[in-house]
Design brief:
Order of helices and strands: HHHH
Strand content: under 5%
Distance between the termini: 18 Å
Largest sheet: none
Number of strands: 0
Number of helices: 4
Radius of gyration: 14 Å
Shape: elongated
Number of domains: 1
Helix content: over 70%
Length: about 80
């Protein structure tokens, strides 16, 4: 699938904002402020899902269940790197 010039410009202009959306609560703020960018919206939605998942993992009172947050942090780091490339 080929990217159009508009999509390439959107990615180039907003890749830093999309990367910062993976930092916990910033994902919600960025999702509401950058509604015009499909690239940012894609990454912000993923970051919101990881944020919600990390809250759910933290709230569940199962012993040693909090170690699963390592995977959500790994997902956030991977998303940060992918958005910034």
């Amino acid at each position: 699938m080929q990217l159009t010039e508009i999509q390439k410009d959107d990615i180039q202009t907003n890749k830093d904002i999309a990367a910062f959306s993976y930092i916990w609560i910033f994902s919600v703020i960025i999702m509401w402020t950058r509604r015009d960018s499909q690239f940012v919206q894609f990454h912000a939605r993923q970051a919101v899902m990881l944020f919600i998942l990390s809250i759910i993992i933290y709230v569940i009172p199962i012993p040693k269940f909090h170690y699963l947050n390592v995977f959500t942090v790994a997902g956030m780091i991977a998303g940060f790197i992918n958005a910034n490339m």
